[in-house]
Amino acid sequence: MSAPTRRRRWLTTCAITATAALVAIPASAASGQNSSPFGARTLAQLAKERKQSVGSMSPSLKGEDGDDGNEADEIAEGADQYAEARTSPGIVAPGAYGAAWTSLTNLTRTGGSWRNITDLPYNSDDPRYRDYDSNSSGGSGNVTGRMAAMAADDDGYVYAGSAGGGVWRSRTGGGHWQPISDRLSSQSTGALALDGAGRLWLGAGEANTNADAYLGSGVYVLSHPHHGTFSTRSRVGGDELESTTVRQLRFGGGKVWAATSEGVWSHSTKKLSGSWKLEFAPNPDYLPGGSKASDGSAAYKNITNDIAIDPKDPSKVVLAVGWRSGDEYNGFYTKVNGTWTRITSGFGDLPTDADNVGTVTFAHSADGSRYYAIDESPAQMAANPDSGLEGIYSAGSPFGPWTKVADYKQLAADGSALTSSGYMPGVQSWYNQFLTVDPADPQHVYAGLEEVYESKNGGSTWSTVGPYWNFGFSCWSIDPAKQTGNCNQTTHSDQHGVAIGTYHGKSFVYVGNDGGVYKRPVGGSQDASGHATDWTSLNDGTIDTLQYYSVGVGKDLTYGGVSVTGGLQDNGQSVLRSNDTVMGSNFGGDGGDTLTDPANGCNIAEEYVYLAVQITQNCAVNDGSWVTDSSKVTSYNVAPADNATSEARFIAPLAADMKNSSTWIAGGRHIWVQTNGYAIRSGSEWKSVYDLGAGRTATAVAASGGKVYAAWCGPCNNQGFARGISVGNADGTGWHDITLPATGADGAVPNRYLSGFAVDPKNADHVYLAVNGFSRHWTEGPGAGVGHVFESTDGGTTWKDISKNLPDVPTNSAVVTPNGGLAVATDLGVVYRAPGRTTWQRVGNLPAVAVLQLKLSPDGSTLYAATHGRGIYTIKVRDCD
User: Fold this and answer.
1) pLDDT of residue 780
2) Separation CA 248–CA 250 (nearest Å)
3) Cβ contact 110:52 at 8 Å
4) What is the side-by-side strand order in the sheet with 434-437?
5) Structure letter (DSSP) for residue 449
6) For 147-166, how does the pLDDT look when each residue is reduced to its tens digit (9 = 90+)?
7) In 286-309, which positions are buried (b, 16+ CB within 10 angstroms) versus exposed (e)?
8) Quick one: 739 exposed, middle or buried, by C-beta within 10 A (0-12, 13-18, 19+)?
């Protein structure tokens, strides 16, 4: 029997946001067939939509609306939406997160301790879950959350800096990890670097300009990284780099240079006190304290990417400056007669004009004889549906002349998995970049884009040693007896960090990407296609940096206990059965919101993006036999219509009625209801019960006993930001918009993003509201308002601010505990208000990690927290009182 017809799902490509890349693709061909690999939205569909957008926007940033850029796929919205929830309707002032962390740590703590339940291997190729919507057999093996930076030494010590889960150390050449930055107020990593004295430097704040990147709190140094941990006392300089991102740290002439989102800074490496020096900012008026600091485009006006310091003369420095989507200040700069001056000539093949200089990464050989660079072109990203990569370059000096040694077409022809029009090497080059040179050989270079590339002759030829995945290669098969057919393991896609180190006398290259950390020998082997045969995943479960958006819990009717599932950034949907020692992945791509039947944990609904909902009633257990027999499919696409029209948010709200698990609510432009529960098989079974209106989209939904609450925004960005609440019944009756008092009035709900409801299970008219963003003290914009948690006892008609001593921190969701307490998830942990109390306590002792969703176990005794960077944690509800 032929393979089933492909279903349309959105391909989350990271073309705009890091919330995507490894997509869920159904295998449309049997083993051995080298056809186009399968797709949520197929690569051909992506190519079509990207081509339709070519030339539709200027490659230059539109100052009036910030991150307007030139990206054209629907997924472009995803880049804005995560940040919008925390910033609209204004710009967050520096110091907001630091102040919130101080306030949170000063709260009294509840009893009990959090337990991490996802600190075990997570096998993305688990053979149990090879259903239609799974990526299992792609070849990534064990994965964890996004790694933004890597460092390694010659004593077997490896350091991995994660996007949202802090910095980790291995003493054994990779594996057996331990966290070493948990005491810091920022767990977001931008850069890691070892200096000549063996000290480890950390630049906090991920600089990939993606949707879920967090700002940092500065630069820190660890003098004895083999043994110590980072602390606030180890911060270099003052607070000059607080609330920035740091893309690179470079050393030369007794100074450390930092390429940040607010210009290039330097500091002495000998005396670590004293202020950082601002070396260069292309538009200083937009920096904090400047005359244009509150402008909507301020965050994009001083972005710097890298610093090239001539190792033969550290006084000679080249700066790579520019916003990935283009701006007139983009370019290369050097000092001429003491003044930073744009380089306009003499660079050879490497462009110097603003339209063709975007995100740039440098690397040089240990002896200083060779320099390499990757350049992403804003103009090409706007006009070329295949790739935004301008090229990879080589030179004998950072001042050139540079010679182009690779472009995207050459890389595609050298064993790449990305050969389809519309999605070729460098299509995400604004987001995926690394470069490093073998210390023992100036001609041996590694480059990271979506894939890992290696050249042993200075760039004359390349091999794709780490292909995007193995789908489409003739060696691939879905055979559950094998990881990926006859193909060798590859790395996870989307490369960010790289380092070369030595363990037991052997050199290894370590790469960090959206799936964690991988290594292979520097002198490793390749097959006939140039693919490496010796990658090892270092994601052994001791390093848990998984970035969850959601969590679901239900009884495990097969093994007893509970089954826990959750949606992840770029790592699909994890499933943890009660007897598991290894987690599996039963849905691929990005995992958004999650519904799990409390009575049966194998009844699962998983949102991909934009309300692309898939359901299964057997945990999506499947051996892949559906490839030849379509009746063997056990997961189904049941997206409501707002998915097809893109009228839902990137991560859209999905909920089940608290009193009836067969009634589901989904929110896009419309409020959708379906009453067939997990037996739903088609998107046509959803009914629109309310139209929020053109330009509006739901941000949160909840229901109890047929009463439905829906929060919305529209517009959702700084240009005319508006929010509201609509209330009605699941049967379509009684719907109306709540009139919210103006900001400043008694009972006013702030004009900020409304992120979650918690309904009292004993009374559907008693409901709590979580409000994201910061108060007006930290938000420079109109109508920001104050307060983060509000209560209504009349079905949402009126609201009361119950924030009291709650720190001024974005709140994401809330849940009413069986005893009447209220737990709230924030960007820095979980807080709790005990029944009968008016003040808040900090729950346990989580690091400074964003908690995006809270759920209760089926019996209500355990609280589950989905963190965006440190996996899933649990705590007993009784311990909170």
Assistant:
1) 67
2) 6
3) no
4) 434-437, 445-448, 452-455, 463-466
5) S
6) 999 999 999 999 999 999 99
7) bbbebeebebbbbbbbbbbbbbbb
8) exposed
pLDDT at 93: 76
Lowest mean pLDDT among 4-8, 153-157, 659-663, 773-777: 4-8
For 31-48, what is the mean pLDDT? 31
Q: Name the 3-class secondary structure at 96.
A: helix
Q: Over 80: is that where the pLDDT of 305 sits?
A: yes
Partner residues linked to 495 by β-bridges: 513
Contact 494, 513 (CB under 8 A): yes
Residues across the chain: 881
Q: Taking a C-beta distance cutoff of 8 angstroms, is the pair 790, 738 a contact?
A: no
Residues 6+ apart with CB under 8 A from 5: none
In 3D space, the residue among 569, 574, 575, 576 whose CA is nearest the CA of residue 592 turns out to be 569
Q: Which of 485, 469, 493 is nearest to 33 (CA)?
A: 485
53, pLDDT greater than 70: no
Q: pLDDT category, 78, cuts 50, 70, 90?
A: low
Please give the Cα distance from 825 to 605 (Å, whole number): 22
CB atoms within 10 A of CB 197: 10
Which residues, at least 6 apart from 407, have a Cβ–Cβ distance to it below 8 Å? 389, 390, 391, 392
pTM over 0.85: yes
Question: Which positions ≥6 away from 338 have C-beta within 8 Å?
Answer: none
Give the Å distances, CA to CA, from 870 to 168, 486, 513, 855.
12, 33, 16, 16
Phi-psi category of residue 589: left, alpha or beta, with phi > 0 → left and psi -120 to 50 → alpha: left
- The CA angle 411-412-417, to the nearest 5 degrees, is 120
Q: Mean pLDDT across the stretch 304-323?
A: 95
CB atoms within 10 A of CB 387: 26
List, in sequence order, every residue forming a beta bridge with 235; answer none if it has no partner.
Answer: 220
Three-point CA angle 738, 744, 745, nearest 5°? 55
pLDDT digits (tens, 9 = 90+) for 538-558: 999 999 999 999 999 999 999
Write out the DSSP string of 284-339: GGGSTTSTTTTSTTGGGSS-EEEEEE-TT-TT-EEEEE--TT--TT-EEEEEETTE
> What letter would DSSP give residue 568?
B
Q: Which residue has the higher pLDDT, 72 or 284?
A: 284
Tokens of 577: 């059965």
Identity of residue 575: V
From the list 214, 208, 205, the residue with the least C-alpha distance to 86 is 214
